[in-house]
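Let's study a protein:

===
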Amino acid sequence: MIFLKLGGSLITDKTVPETPRLEAIRRLAEEIARARSELPELRLLIGHGSGSFGHIVAARYGTHRGASSKEDWAGFAEVWSAAARLNRLVVEALRAAGLPAMAFPPSASVIAEAGEIVEMAVEPIQRALEAGLVPVVAGDVAFDRRRGSTIVSTERVFFCLGRLLRPTRLLLAGIERGVFADYPANTRLLPAITEKDLPGIALAGAATTDVTGGMADKVLLAMRLAQELPDLEVRIFSGEEPGRVTDALLGGTPGTLVGSGKPSSGQVS
């Protein structure tokens, strides 16, 4: 099983509110469909970031910090609506490419506490995978027992689901070619990064509005999941180059390997 994330910076212009990169979304959907047609037995869970849809509105209302007032909860609903609009675009593009995609929004299935997911309805996603469908999750709002509200990133959703569904590969496709040792100059791409490398690397957040922590949070959560699932291969790479996502899904090894998981042998399950 493969978990694939399409980053918010890859599918939207994060500098302009609610601006989807429609051609990129279409191309990525077709690349995923091409991989699935070559490997019909491939079990695939897709996630995507919220980009310039959810992040900008969430930052305006502070939804990730909590909600208590009437105005806070109105903002919560507005962030949900923005995230849902992008999710609809992604799901419809996947379906137009021939994939049996279905949305499973975390806002309807997750309970968090202090920003961490503590409960999630997993059985519907399991049943969808068993039926050969392609579940789609995304960065979303969630109810939080301590704060009232929070934002859960796709990585946090993957972290929760990964413990239960135990994927063999986690592919995080964004616009960066991987993890760089010299951000923001981005001249020294790291082929691999393990926990012992972290003290010597200045992991940055995001260059644009990102209420979930950007690259730093992505790497740290991926590292935690790789530690819990020793056979998991985690890769951070760019989906900007046409064909790269298809190649990655079929066993390619792009970008930066995160954690101690073994590189793919080309076999996909």
